[in-house]
């Protein structure tokens, strides 16, 4: 029998196109999996950032990936804001994957984000806390720019939201 | 006014403000005074445009045309943005000042809308609010920096404030939809919003050594919400829709 848990496990093969070390499951954007009659599957995703250009792509990737399983019926994917995505939805495995990509993982429980909190971002290379934030905006919507005074390395952080 | 029409009026002004300020922000792409600022304004442009698309999608669910059609096929008189957002980017001083005045208002608008009785709007407001916090953080940092920089930077920021102020007050143009929206707990209304905004921006301006124009000189620039715009909006729309109009049916 096909279960939602099984689908969730299989979706770990679908990676964030901008951070290919993290799966969309560990990123926390898979907010609903419905197994319907005839093993049709309906997956609900929640956007990370409203203007994230990868969202449409991730919808297609989910459809394509699950579409390759002969046991499954029709695959539908929808985006919903019902669950608000925050970086606290990223799993521990997700944090490790973000670090593996060379990004500082987002700090937990940052609903009230301030400059001071961002200034304290830990370097993903040497774990030093002696870092400086250069800008809260980086090359993608979810990243900020930092510099590590210890290993003299510029790095990017995954912004807590 | 029935509640669906009232809701549409609210959604149009929010989305149009975001789309137009988003386009203006994008004009700094490649021109920012330093690389980080170039990236900051481009990122904020992407946020604003993404947010406007989601609001246009809500309008689509209420029977309006789809997001692209609404964004790219209207002329200036059909837009409901405030005149503040359509003004040219000017110098960096003006862009930072407008960014501060506008995003403070967005911050308060979406903070309130998080508890809107209209659920689809409340849901997107929660999402947007997390993003807008980064925008106000950016604006407040630069406001403080330039206000305290030197005589020249402070003078330029003050001049920009004096110029932008009445346009900023124009963001809170009252409209016929408000009575229904307030009664149905969808939105707190522009007057209440303006009061909260004033309480937010005044101390930040003062801490940045800037003087809020004296109330005797206040003359809000209204009209944007009912399609009356400056000479700057139509040329902006022409540029923004240039690619779309070459082939409206193109698949992106």
Task: Describe the 3D structure.
The complex is a heterodimer of chains A (161) and B (252). Chain A has 161 residues and is an alpha/beta fold. Chain A folds into two domains: 4-87, Fe-S cluster assembly (FSCA) (GMP Synthetase, Chain A, domain 3, 2-Layer Sandwich), CATH 3.30.300; 102-158, no CATH class. In chain A, 24% of the residues lie in helices and 22% in strands. Chain A contains five helices and seven strands; from the N terminus they run H-H-E-E-H-E-H-E-H-E-E-E. Chain A has helices at residues 4-10, 24-27, 54-67, 92-100, 115-119, and strands spanning 30-35, 41-45, 75-79, 103-104, 131-135, 143-148, 153-158. The radius of gyration of chain A is 17 Å and the shape is elongated. The model of chain A has no long low-confidence stretch (mean pLDDT 93). Chain B has one domain: Up-down Bundle (Ferritin), CATH 1.20.1260.10. Chain B is 67% helix and 0% strand. Chains A and B meet through loops of A and helix 2 and helix 6 of B.
Write a short abstract of this structure:
The complex is a heterodimer of chains A (161) and B (252). Chain A is an alpha/beta fold and 161 residues long. In chain A, 24% of the residues lie in helices and 22% in strands.
Q: What brief labels describe this structure?
A:
heterodimer, A: alpha/beta, GMP Synthetase, Chain A, domain 3, 2 domains, 4-stranded mixed beta sheet, 3-stranded mixed beta sheet, 5 helices, B: 252 residues, mainly alpha, Ferritin, 67% helix, 0% strand, globular
Q: What is the correct CATH architecture of chain B?
A: Up-down Bundle
Seen as an oligomer or otherwise, the chain set is heterodimer
Number of strands of chain A: 7
The first-level CATH class of chain B is given as Mainly Alpha
Within CATH, the superfamily of chain B carries the name Ferritin, core subunit, four-helix bundle
Give the amount of beta strand of chain A, in percent.
15-25%
Q: Strand count, sense and closure of the main sheet of chain B? A: none
Tell me the major beta sheet of chain A. 4 strands, mixed
Count of separate DSSP helical elements of chain B: 11
CATH topology type of chain B:
Ferritin
**Spatial order of the strands forming the largest sheet of chain A:** 4-7-6-5
How far apart, in Å, are the first and last alpha carbons of chain A?
A: 37 Å
């Amino acid at each position: 029998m096909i279960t939602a848990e099984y689908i969730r496990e299989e979706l770990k093969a679908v990676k964030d196109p901008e951070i290919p070390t993290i799966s969309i499951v560990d990123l926390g954007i898979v907010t609903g999996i419905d197994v319907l009659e005839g093993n049709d599957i309906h997956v609900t995703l929640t956007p990370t950032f409203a203007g994230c250009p990868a969202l449409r792509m991730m919808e297609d990737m989910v459809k394509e990936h699950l579409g390759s399983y002969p046991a499954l019926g029709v695959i539908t994917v929808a985006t919903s804001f019902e669950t608000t995505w925050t970086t606290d939805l990223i799993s521990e495995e997700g944090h490790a994957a973000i670090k593996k990509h060379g990004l500082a993982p987002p700090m937990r429980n940052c609903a009230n984000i301030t400059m001071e909190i961002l200034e304290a971002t830990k370097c993903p290379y040497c774990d030093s806390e002696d870092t400086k934030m250069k800008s809260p905006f980086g090359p993608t919507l979810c990243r900020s720019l930092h510099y590590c005074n210890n290993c003299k390395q510029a790095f990017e952080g995954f912004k807590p939201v | 006014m029935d509640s669906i029409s009232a809701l549409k009026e609210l959604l149009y002004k929010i989305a149009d403000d975001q789309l137009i300020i988003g386009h203006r922000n994008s004009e700094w792409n490649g021109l920012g005074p330093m690389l980080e600022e170039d990236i900051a304004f481009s990122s904020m442009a992407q946020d604003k445009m993404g947010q406007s698309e989601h609001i246009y999608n809500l309008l689509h669910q209420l029977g309006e045309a789809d997001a692209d059609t609404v964004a790219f096929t209207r002329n200036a008189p059909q837009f409901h943005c405030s005149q503040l957002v359509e003004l040219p980017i000017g110098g960096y001083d003006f862009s930072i000042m407008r960014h501060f005045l506008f995003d403070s208002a967005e911050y308060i608008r979406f903070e309130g809308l998080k508890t809107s009785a209209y659920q689809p709007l409340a849901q997107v407001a929660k999402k947007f609010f997390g993003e807008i916090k980064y925008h106000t953080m950016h604006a407040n940092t630069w406001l403080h920096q330039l206000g305290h920089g030197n005589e020249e930077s402070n003078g330029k920021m003050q001049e920009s404030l004096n110029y932008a102020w009445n346009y900023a007050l124009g963001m809170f143009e009252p409209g016929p939809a408000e009575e229904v929206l307030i009664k149905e707990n969808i939105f707190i209304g522009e007057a209440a919003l303006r009061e909260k905004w004033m309480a937010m921006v005044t101390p930040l301006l003062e801490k940045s050594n800037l003087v809020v124009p004296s109330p005797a000189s206040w003359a809000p620039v209204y009209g944007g919400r009912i399609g009356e715009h400056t000479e700057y909006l139509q040329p902006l729309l022409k540029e923004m829709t240039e690619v779309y109009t070459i082939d409206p049916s193109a698949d992106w």
